[in-house]
Amino acid sequence: MDIVVIVGENDISPYREKLDAAAPGRFLAVALPCGDWDRDLSPWPAPPAFKKGGTFAGKALSFLPAAVSAMEKAGESLASPPAHRIVAGYSLAGLFALWTLTQTPLFDCAACASPSLWFPGWTEWLRERPLLPDHPRVALSLGDREEKTRNPVLAAVGEGVRGTRDLLLARGVPCSLRMDAGGHFEDAENRTLRTILDLFPAEGILS
User: Fold this and answer.
1) What's the mean pLDDT in 138-166?
2) Which of 152, 157, 200, 207 is 20 to 30 A distant from 176 in Cα terms?
3) Half-sphere exposure for 203 (CA within 13 Å, toward CB)
4) How many CA atoms lie within 13 A of 58 on its CB side?
5) Average pLDDT of the chain to the nearest whole number
């Protein structure tokens, strides 16, 4: 069985139901609620992305123990160690999921749906940081209208996602990129689920 920690979610039941429908008995999904995304999921301080938005406090390192604890508690319920430990998220939680692989070897997979890889300095920072698991896997997804926004900060997301994919592939890290239809605020739950399943293309979970 694989454990999936889905960052920023309070209600895990839709994810459990849909993952079990796609791959019965394969995944144990647990939720990791987050009270303040801009504070807890940002890896370092950054200015607002919107005119009336707040600043990013850069407290991901302080929030990381909650993700580790969620994974460890879920693992205690299994008779044997999980085959994979997956951290998944949408938007800023997707950024946090990928960042997590640079901070701890506990998670070996990251599913990053419409991740906020426009975040200032992200690609340059990742270029200097290894992923810590021995055999990491990453799945990325992006809406095909996301980089067409008029917001110049958010419009960099396409460049950030593709740059991240290329950087990881150059390191030999399996990394997929799914393009979904729509903008950023569409079908987040199903996009996240599909991105999780994209981690295992050779296993034929997705038709």
Assistant:
1) 96
2) 152
3) 9
4) 9
5) 95
